[in-house]
Amino acid sequence: MGSITRSFSNNITTSGVLLPASLNNNSIANVTEYNAAIATGGMKLISSQTASNSASISFTTGIDSTYKEYQFWFVDIHPRTDSVNFTFNLSTDSGSNYNVTKTTTVFNAYHAENDTATDLTYRTGDDLAQSTGFQILLTGVGNGADESCVASMSLFNPSSTTYVKHFISSGNIYDASDFSVNYFVAGYGNTTSAVNAVRFQMSSGNFDGTILLYGIK
């Protein structure tokens, strides 16, 4: 016991500070609770929806003042129509209307499967300037049996009644023309009203896939 005590005391400074070297996977056992003042961070799954030949998916609950950041994760979004765009819009009236004014920027990088073409470019035709239309998140998605797209989108402080509503998205597409396309979108909903619902849909036709909503602590 004495050797254990001496070993532990060697990791304490003269001012009583516990040194980092004393902490490892075996140093604290059976911890079951953290003090409420300790920020543990992490992602909280709020809800998940799965599209099955669906025209759209809307999140009309769970987006409120609980978190300052919400993240949507899009898993294997597969359109039923070839070469269409995956899009979204915001609502300030719990989903009665999806028509928030937005200004956005878009760019992408792509590489052909046959290695004949690569590029990094700004997508002038995919951005919005004070438009209430649906914003493209992923473009030209193929509907082949193995084709889909994946992405994540962060929406910041949607319940603010002071600031506009910023969002950032990045994802990858199996393009209808057999390209890998890395696609980036950012912008803001130009409203100081609280945003409390979000809708996702293809530019044409229905789609399959899963969308998860997380709150970020």
Task: Give structural notes.
The protein has 217 residues and is mainly beta. It has a single domain (43-216), classed as Jelly Rolls (Sandwich). Helices cover 4% and strands 47% of the residues. The chain contains one helix and twelve strands; from the N terminus they run αββββββββββββ. It has one helix at residues 2-9, and strands at residues 43-54, 56-59, 69-79, 84-91, 102-112, 118-122, 135-141, 149-156, 165-174, 179-189, 197-202, 207-216. The strands form two sheets. It has an eight-stranded antiparallel beta sheet with strand order 1-12-3-8-9-10-5-6, with no helix packed on it. A four-stranded antiparallel beta sheet has the order 2-11-4-7, with no helix packed on it. The longest helix has 8 residues, at 2-9.
Topology:
Layout: H1 2-9, E1 43-54, E2 56-59, E3 69-79, E4 84-91, E5 102-112, E6 118-122, E7 135-141, E8 149-156, E9 165-174, E10 179-189, E11 197-202, E12 207-216
